[in-house]
Amino acid sequence: MLKEKPKLSFWQIWNMSFGFLGIQMGFALQNGNASRILTDFGANVESLSWFWLVAPLTGMIVQPIIGYWSDRTWSKTFGRRRPFFLGGAILACTALVLLPNADKYTSVFPALLVGAGFLMLMDTSFNISMEPFRALVADNLPKSQSTVGFSIQTALIGVGAVVGSFLPWILANWFGVPNNLVNVKVQPNVVYSFYVGAIVFMIAILWTIFKTKEYSPQERIDMGIVDTEKSTEKFSIPMTMWKLGLIQFFSWFGLFCMWVYTTTAIREHTYGLPSIDALKEISRDNPTDKIAMVQLALSENLGDWVGILFGIYNGVSAIFALLIPIIAVKIGKSRTHMVSLVMGGIGLILMYFMPDKNAMIIPMIFIGIAWASILAMPYSMLSGVISTDKMGLFMGIFNFFITLPQIVSALFSGPIVRHLFGGNAACALMLGGGLMIIAGLLNFTIKNEN
Predict the structure, then answer these.
(1) For residue 257, which of 436, 380, 401 has the smallest C-alpha distance?
(2) What is the reported pLDDT for 109?
(3) Which of 95, 387, 422, 447 fits a disulfide with 230 by CB distance 3.0 to 4.6 angstroms?
(4) What domains appear along the chain, each with residue ranges and CATH number?
């Protein structure tokens, strides 16, 4: 008979989840700047989604493997999940330093190809660290605290993402780090942001490693945590997981469109600027062309502003995450998730119609509500229907429903933007919004939440 695990205090849950602040700071730097960096290295708007294939492909491969092995790992020094936190953090910090400097390692291969390789290393290492964190919350918390646990985790994710998203803008506007140089591939404010991200990533991971206790195999047996009946059952995926997977598919397709195309959409659709490559070429060939120089400066500032916008939606998610447990108690987990996703979809659609960069803050509020729910509610609903002994494996498999939509989007969104939308990246944001609304409505299929 499976017993209820002891409840943890707020600060115990906080310490257990604190490493996610560093992970998400790295993700925010990647999400806000990867398209910008790859464009600086020569990628065009139609090919951007192809380079973003790196992230979901590595996640699809790495997370189930890491989940499987973390279920079966025990170290007297580091525990069950923590060895993977540390290994992933070392690799992630290395990749954060290398990616914006890819043009310095181009003696054989083009900078764009080298950058894509470092992006792959970065995302692989993020996944190594991230997957065990989901399992750790489910490992240590009773089901009655699962929503609270994932909500605190989401709040810390929001804080890390806000800092990571704001960093390039902060360095440029508060500390005077250059952000519009003509003769560099990646602007210095972006490069130094990645350095700061690497430092914070490592500190946050080490905090969780030293401040968190995991149950040993014997303690799990003595406390009745190990569900021996379920652990001997034939492996099968619960129906609730399939339903949540379909919701995840449409949710993450919409998010992927936003991450890939927001910078280009604001530059070219909202402000009508030429491509960044064209502006740099004009400025190099004719340094006296004041119009091109002004447009280049505006374009780079808009690139920094995208980080601010992404930070805003993450900040909203950090606040809303603390309200999710209260809302879920009143209207249910699936309805909470449904309303949040519909609001996020509306936000993505609104981005097409916003007249300037400041107005873009309004859609970010809607998207932040959806992001908080995406990071918390599916895992809270899932943790109630899977065996504790297979938590890491199932969380890794559940990641398929995050990576698959990103792969589909990466393969088809580029041709869709080029041939169906006439190169208008803003239309991809509207497509993502429609799909996120569909994801919200699919929550009507979730009847048994726990």
Answers:
(1) 436
(2) 62
(3) 387
(4) 10-445 (1.20.1250.20)
